[in-house]
Amino acid sequence: SEILFQDGEHLRYFETAEQCLELAEYYLAHDRERQKIARQGMERAHEHFCTQRIAADMFTLLTKGSYDRPWSEIIQ
Fold this sequence. Notes:
single chain; 76 residues
């Protein structure tokens, strides 16, 4: 998922339960920053991973054998 979304821009990654709780506490106290990351993540998901885009990528992959997306290496 690190290829699909960027930490701090589209979402926040964490490695431990403690880090998760620290991030939750931080973002509960920083509304604007939390909302900005949430909005950017939602926009990226809707732009790049909507049904029409995924279907087009699948069609291209099936007909041409590959497609041009940064995350295409995951599927191939």
